[in-house]
Backbone:
């Protein structure tokens, strides 16, 4: 059973506070759109969902597919005005704005604890809103969204990493690839029913890569993953920040973004595998199944 978007009397409720009357919210924050040339393009968005009756996957055009303005300009109506113009602006967008602007443009300032926390908050908010691009396969619990709203910190069990990115193609200047899973540890109990309990979200934005994840230790060792892909963990915050050693292009970003699906031998969509489909990577399978590592 997948999570459902919050509704009351047919009206969409804010995903953070539960109030009615949602407004449009930019994934990236409106102020960042001008730094990305792909805001003049159209978004390519596909979803992949599992039919629990047949265990077959269907690939369909997502709700953002072919929208004018590219991924950076994309919006979803999932938050209320009070949250959007209140704590989200004051505690997330404004504290992260100057640091993210520099990073998007390829200038790496010294990141202290405050800067790493600001970027981690922004990545968390992006991930939670992006989760609703495919409501059929939501992977983030309402309790985690409530925790973030109340504490202004990524939820317990989240890891956030940052890396360097450089891609000349205009249609790949920004990308986001989110996966929802239901993962059960080897020899652990198998729930007959229940929501997805894990996610990964990889974001390419200008000159940086960001990745958030909420995975059980049986599925991934964050330190090993960061070392393998040349990323730096910024949440939980390290004692000292080190500039990531690897510069990714879209091809290596795509490999990194789909790593967990490859290792768990799950199907996924990759625009890199199809030269005719080359635009925003907003592919995300809606996986409502038990995934085991052998």
Residues:
């Amino acid at each position: 059973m997948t999570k459902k978007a919050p509704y009351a009397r047919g009206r969409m409720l804010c995903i953070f506070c539960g109030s009615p009357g949602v407004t449009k919210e930019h994934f990236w924050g409106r102020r960042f759109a001008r730094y990305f040339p792909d805001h003049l393009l159209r978004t390519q968005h596909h979803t992949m969902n599992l039919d629990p009756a047949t265990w077959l996957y269907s690939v369909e055009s997502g709700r953002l597919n072919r929208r004018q303005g590219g991924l950076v300009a994309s919006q979803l109506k999932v938050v209320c005005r009070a949250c959007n113009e209140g704590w989200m602006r004051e505690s997330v967008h404004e504290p992260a704005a100057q640091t993210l602007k520099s990073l998007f443009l390829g200038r790496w300032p010294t990141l202290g604890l405050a800067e790493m926390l600001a970027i981690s908050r922004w990545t968390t908010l992006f991930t939670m809103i992006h989760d609703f691009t495919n409501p059929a396969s939501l992977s983030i619990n309402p309790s985690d969204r409530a925790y973030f709203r109340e504490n202004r910190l990524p939820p317990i069990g989240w890891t956030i990493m940052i890396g360097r990115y450089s891609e000349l193609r205009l249609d790949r200047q920004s990308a986001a690839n989110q996966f929802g899973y239901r993962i059960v540890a080897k020899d652990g109990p198998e729930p007959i029913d229940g929501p997805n309990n894990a996610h990964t979200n990889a974001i390419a934005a200008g000159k940086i890569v960001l990745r958030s994840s909420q995975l059980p230790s049986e599925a991934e060792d964050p330190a090993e993953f960061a070392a393998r892909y040349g990323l730096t963990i910024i949440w939980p915050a390290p004692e000292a920040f080190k500039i990531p050693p690897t510069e990714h292009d879209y091809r290596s970003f795509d490999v990194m973004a789909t790593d967990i699906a490859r290792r768990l031998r799950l199907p996924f969509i990759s625009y890199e595998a199809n030269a005719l489909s080359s635009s925003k990577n907003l592919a995300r399978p809606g996986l409502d199944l038990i995934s085991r590592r052998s």
